[in-house]
TrEMBL record, chain A:
The keyword Iron applies. InterPro entries: Ccp1-like, Haem_peroxidase, Haem_peroxidase_sf, Peroxidase_I, Peroxidases_AS, Peroxidases_heam-ligand_BS. Pfam families: peroxidase (PF00141). Residues 20-255 form the Plant heme peroxidase family profile domain. This is L-ascorbate peroxidase. Belongs to the peroxidase family. Ascorbate peroxidase subfamily. Transmembrane segments: none annotated. It comes from the Eukaryota.
UniProtKB/TrEMBL annotation, chain B:
GO terms for cellular component: chloroplast. This is L-ascorbate peroxidase. One of its GO terms (biological process) is cellular response to oxidative stress. The keyword Cell inner membrane does not apply. It comes from Gossypium arboreum (Tree cotton). Belongs to the peroxidase family. Ascorbate peroxidase subfamily. SUPFAM superfamilies: Heme-dependent peroxidases (SSF48113).
């Protein structure tokens, strides 16, 4: 599918969709499942083959039925309400925008959102998302494959500050923190707390973050400094939401690029060795009346 | 009470309070009552005596027990949770910030918020807020006293897109629109539609239709939601700043202007570079 054009109309629709998402997510209190939808659409990325990633493919039957995506149909259906009102915007952008808004309305950091992702019908094979029963090595396999780092792994795991696991979905049960609809650093505090409420959930992959010394450094930082967590989370979330996505250039940057090309040609025309460069540069000068300008300049001097 | 010092520390606390308010309001679905709290703290302003206005005075028992403020203790208590985490910020700023966030999380426009209001314990007399049973002349008396206009009256009435009236509070009952937790222009659409099963229209709402000046705005906002959002944001900001002169114009408009300026400067610099380079080219050519 073609890249959506970065015209002002599209940007306006994105802003309207953002507002609709705020209302939808607040009133339905579905921030956690919307965040998970955005993460599961993006988290299939393979940096080597450049497949998967945030491209809306998750809405298709086969991918939606992957075990890891159990329960996500609810989020896909909620997003459909917004898509109906703003059909222009791609599903890829919509799902990532939903993730950004989910973090915002639960009190989390503002995450920079750049629109322009294309939709894709191609679903990646099952198994690209992390398995909650595994450990640190598995986490690195999965996230390094996406092109992310240790810091990203720990910061993004902080997303468990929201929501809960469901027996009928993942098989696990319960929330990670006492306020599953508040985005803060309590996930890390609970991880480090040996006397944490036994009702609170700690997956094997959560515990791996304190067992591995490199991961643990970040856990300790985020537990004691919520500002640092918010800052790193915003950066990692943005990275994740843009895996494999290069934003289309705006008209202004195209103009600037064009002027730079002309400038480089003008510089190269200093070197009068090759005839064709001369031809080219004098043609450029004739076209843009630079000789006139230059001689006018000289007359003034 | 003194004006708060709006330094970097204060601004940071405001941002944190803003995030806490988003979480609180989304969690409790209490945006309507938070908006009402902000409006009732601000709406007591008298432009000729410079009394009342957004100064946190509503938190005093003397004021929150006014008939018009029935039920608002709930919102005051919610805000207290946020104040406890950010004691530095004034109640006046907190209540207005809550109003701004309430509009935001329900899908409304972004309203510019400038902090720095001071708190006051001086409570205005009862009777400064509008009486729902009255009509257009009363609305003008009340709002012109604040220093607001006809356009402000209609735009701000659009706040009824959120929430409902309660028999045990105002005596009236029900929401004005079918989605009382969604901020949009349906209040105006419903007004023009006429009587609807289960939806509320106060005498003051109907007055917006009967008065020709008000009606012009109702019709505009019913057909153009963008115009409503634009005017609402402006009127809400005005209301939230009655009697308050922001010293720091920390508005997003300034940030936008500077990025446009920067981009323009880059374009000019590159064009100048090209002209200068061509000049030197010509000079060298002549020298050879």
């Amino acid at each position: 599918m073609a890249a959506p054009v970065m015209d002002p109309q599209y940007l306006k629709e994105i802003e309207k969709a953002r507002r609709d998402l705020r209302a939808l997510i607040s009133s339905n209190q579905c921030a956690p499942i919307m965040l998970r939808l955005a993460w599961h659409d993006a988290g299939t990325y393979d940096a080597k083959t450049k497949t998967g990633g945030p491209n809306g493919s998750i809405r298709h039957g086969d991918e939606l039925q992957h075990a890891a995506n159990s329960g996500l149909k609810k989020a896909v259906d909620l997003c459909e309400q917004v898509k109906e009102r703003h059909p222009q915007i791609t599903y890829a952008d919509l799902y990532q925008l939903a993730g950004v808004v989910a973090v915002e309305v639960t009190g989390g950091p503002t995450i920079d959102f750049v629109p322009g992702r294309k939709d894709s019908m191609a679903s990646p094979e099952e198994g690209r998302l992390p398995d909650a029963n595994q450990g640190a090595k598995h986490l690195r396999d999965i996230f390094y494959r996406m092109g992310l780092s240790d810091k990203d792994i720990v910061a993004l795991s902080g997303g468990h500050t929201l929501g809960r696991a469901h027996p009928e979905r993942s098989g696990f049960k319960g929330a990670w923190t006492k306020e599953p609809l508040k985005f803060d650093n309590s996930y890390y505090k609970e991880l480090l707390n040996n006397e944490s409420d036994p009702e609170l959930l700690k997956l094997r992959t959560d515990k791996a973050l304190v067992e591995d010394p490199k991961f643990k450094r970040y856990v300790e930082l985020y537990a004691k400094d919520e500002d640092a967590f918010f800052r790193d989370y915003a950066a990692s979330h943005k990275k994740l939401s843009e895996l494999g996505f290069i934003s289309p250039p705006s008209k202004l940057s195209l103009k600037v690029a064009l002027v730079f090309v002309i400038a480089i040609v003008a510089i190269l025309s200093h070197y009068e060795g090759h005839f064709s460069w001369n031809e080219l540069s004098s043609q450029f000068q004739k076209r843009f009346n630079l000789t006139d300008l230059a001689s006018k300049f000289q007359k003034r001097m | 009470m003194a004006f708060p010092v709006v330094d970097t520390e204060y601004l940071k606390e405001i941002d944190k309070a803003r995030r806490d308010l988003r979480a609180l309001i989304a969690l409790k679905n209490c945006s309507p009552i938070m908006l009402r709290l902000a409006w009732h703290d601000a709406g007591t302003y008298d432009v000729s005596t410079k009394t009342g206005g957004p100064n946190g005075s509503i938190r005093n028992e003397e004021e929150f027990t006014h008939g018009a403020n029935s039920g608002l203790k709930i919102a005051i208590d919610f805000c207290e949770e946020v104040k406890a985490k950010h004691p530095k910020i004034t109640y006046a700023d907190l209540y207005q910030l809550a109003g701004v966030v309430a509009v935001e999380v329900t899908g409304g426009p972004t309203i510019d918020f400038v902090p720095g209001r001071k708190d006051s314990n001086i409570c205005p007399r009862e009777g400064r807020l509008p009486d729902a049973k009255r009509g257009a002349p009363h609305l003008r008396d009340i709002f012109y006293r604040m220093g607001l206009s006809d356009k402000d009256i209609v735009a701000l009435s659009g706040g009824h897109t959120l929430g409902r009236a309660h028999p045990e509070r105002s005596g009236f009952d029900g929401p004005w629109t079918n989605e009382p937790l969604k901020f949009d222009n349906s209040y105006f659409l419903e007004l023009l539609k006429g009587e609807s099963e289960g939806l509320l229209k106060l005498p003051t709402d109907k007055a917006l239709l009967d008065d020709p000046e008000f009606r012009k705005y109702v019709e505009l906002y019913a057909k153009d939601e963008d115009a409503f959002f634009r005017d609402y944001a402006e009127s809400h900001k005005k209301l939230s700043e009655l009697g308050f002169t922001p010293t720091s114009a920390r508005s997003k408009v300034m940030v936008k202007d500077s990025t446009v300026l920067a981009q323009g400067a880059v374009g000019v610099a590159v064009a100048a570079a090209v002209v200068i380079l061509s000049y030197f080219y010509e000079v060298r050519k002549r020298m050879k």
